[in-house]
Design goal:
The chain has 154 residues and is α/β, with parallel strands linked by helices. The protein is built from seven helices and six strands; from the N terminus they run E-H-H-E-H-H-E-H-E-E-H-E-H. It is globular.
C-alpha cells in the first residue's frame, strides 16, 4: 500500500447513453441500472437535475443499493433542505458537493490526463472521494480509474 488512506471513485450519474450498449446488459430494465451500477462502484454523485426531479424516489434508491454505498449530491447544501433526503437514504446519504468539489471530494475530467498523470495527482491529493465528470464518460474509463486506485492501494 502506498498510502494509509482510501479513496472511493464513482461517476456523476449512472445513466450515460453509451453505457446502455457497453456496461449494462441489453435487456436490463432502466429502473435496475442503479442496482447494477452499485454492484461495481461504491458511490455516485447525483446530478442536480436528477435529484431535484419531480419523480425522484430516494427511498427506492436506498433499497436499490447494498449497505455501504454512498450517494453524494451535486449542489450547494446551504440552499437545500436535505431533511427528506437524509431521512429516506439514511446512512447512504454522504452529503452535498459544490460544482467545483470541496476539500474531501474531487470532481475531475478523466480525459484531461493520462493514467501516469492521474497517479501523480493521486499521490498528492488528500480527498476521500473522486467523481469522474466527463460528459461522455465510458464505463471503461471509470473502471480504469478504479483499477488505478486499487493498484495504488488506495
Amino acid at each position: 500500500m502506498i498510502h494509509d488512506k482510501s479513496i472511493i471513485v464513482g461517476a456523476c450519474g449512472w445513466d450515460y447513453p453509451e453505457w446502455q450498449k457497453t456496461f449494462y446488459p441489453e435487456d436490463l430494465p432502466a429502473d435496475w441500472r442503479l442496482s447494477f451500477y452499485a454492484n461495481e462502484f461504491s458511490a455516485v454523485l447525483v446530478p442536480t437535475e436528477k435529484w431535484q426531479a419531480d419523480d425522484v424516489d430516494f427511498e427506492q434508491w436506498a433499497q436499490d443499493v447494498q449497505a455501504g454505498f454512498q450517494f453524494y449530491f451535486l449542489g450547494d447544501d446551504l440552499k437545500v433542505d436535505d431533511g427528506l433526503i437524509k431521512k429516506e437514504l439514511g446512512d447512504a446519504f454522504a452529503g452535498f458537493v459544490a460544482a467545483n468539489g470541496n476539500t474531501e471530494v474531487a470532481l475531475i475530467n478523466y480525459a484531461n490526463k493520462n493514467l501516469r498523470d492521474w497517479k501523480e495527482w493521486l499521490l498528492k491529493t488528500n480527498v476521500s472521494a473522486v467523481f469522474l465528470m466527463d460528459k461522455n464518460l465510458s464505463a471503461k474509463q471509470l473502471r480504469e480509474f478504479q483499477s488505478l486506485l486499487e493498484l495504488m492501494g488506495l
